[in-house]
Amino acid sequence: MLPKQAIDEYKDLYEKRFGVVLSDEEASFRANKLLALYRAVLAADTKSANTSSAAGSI
């Protein structure tokens, strides 16, 4: 769960980019989903980098 300040920042950025004002609940949902996606991509990238570096040293 993101802190209130992070949700507010997300709401501001979303409004500036898309011109849509999100409720606190919708902003929290979307921001947390975005963070989960980022973490999944980062984890996959880190795993891939570790596999590549191990394969390169053989």
How much strand?
under 5%
The biggest sheet, with number of strands, parallel, antiparallel or mixed sense and barrel status, is: none
Helical element count? 2
User: What's the assembly state of these chains?
Assistant: single chain
State the end-to-end CA separation.
Answer: 41 Å
Element order, helices and strands? Answer: HH
Helix content: over 70%
Q: Helix- and strand-based class?
A: mainly alpha
Identify low-pLDDT runs.
none
Mean pLDDT: 90
Q: Return Rg in Å.
A: 17 Å
Shape: elongated
Number of strands: 0
Give descriptors for this structure.
mainly alpha; single chain; 83% helix; elongated; 58 residues
Concise description?
This protein is mainly alpha-helical and 58 residues long.
Q: Any overview of this molecule?
A:
The chain contains two helices and no strands. It has 58 residues and is mainly α. α1 packs across α2 (24-56). The mean pLDDT is 90. The radius of gyration is 17 Å and the shape is elongated. The protein has helices at residues 4-18, 24-56.
List strands and helices in order, with pairings.
Blueprint: H1 4-18, H2 24-56
